[in-house]
Amino acid sequence: MDFLSLIPSTVSVLAGGGDAGQNGSAATYSCTLTNIWSMKNHPVEYDTITNSAHWSPPVLVAHGTDYEMWAPDTLASPGVEIVAESGKTLTLEDEIKESQTIGSAGEYVVGNNQFNANDPPQTFNDIQLTSNFPMLSTITMAAPSPDWFTGIYNFSPIHPELNVWYESFEIATYPFDAGTELGDTYSLNNSPQEPHIPIFQLTNETIPGDNGILLDESETVVRPMALWNCAIQKTTEPEITIPVVNENVEDEDLTTITTDTDTGGDSDNDGEDDVDVDGGGDGEGEGEGDSTGGDGDVDGVGVCGRYFNECTVNGDCCSGSCQREKCRAKSRGSGRAESSRISSTGGNTVGGAAGLSRRSSVGTGGGRMKKRFLRG
Fold it and tell me: What's the predicted TM-score (pTM) here?
């Protein structure tokens, strides 16, 4: 995982009462998935799946340290195996519900198929993290593929020194192999991996076969495949006053990529390859969700400069003139996809609204903090 942006709020994790449990506060996040798996960033054989490449219905779960959806170097659970191979989520949902009954998992959310060529970024129903369930994990299958997926694992959106929730965060995630099925190309019908092996990240050293699948145009690295952006919508406790944090971290080894549409063009005419936000075609594999269908870092040194060659507004990497509303629209998507939000006490509300809810009055007094890209 690459942490592109980590911005602290003024909401203490330790504030007591409310719905958060006996020992702390709760933060409700709205999260968006943006595709960057494209011909531009992963050109090998992508032309064979241009119209079918998609993400299966993503699953997001709030949990504590006693639950783990998935992690590198661990064996995939039956639910994770099925998601990675077919995109179906029911078995994984049953695993989460079982963890809810023993108090190790909280709310979870299930999204929809998201096609690279056609669909905009997908915004999910809100998910609440609490002091009892302060961690977030997500998973979605890269389809079609043998058992490849991407997502966040065991991430806690809490500033380690200030002990406050992050107001917003953005994470770029890489492809992983579930270790359950063989295959070295974009296909769904493959032989099982016997015995199963631990989950591992697909890199230039671990990609299967010799065809260079998933490598970038330089054939040297595997770029991230998805961006996850989450922002607080509301909290259960009043704000507190904390020191302003303004930390800029330099990293000379980051790969410069930018966003673009799936036209294969260079959006900023700077000669650099662009990261496509694309998405397309027929729904092969999983049948559980239908597609619904200021300034800052302008010196090119910060995260937005490296990844997008542009500036930021309110912590969002943007393009164009960086007008406030334009930036929000680009970073969060044009609307909220229909999805399910399931509480830790049972129940399922299905919904979606045109447009994204505005953030509640959480405040931005905590300042802005950028983190070094941490590969994981």
Answer: 0.66
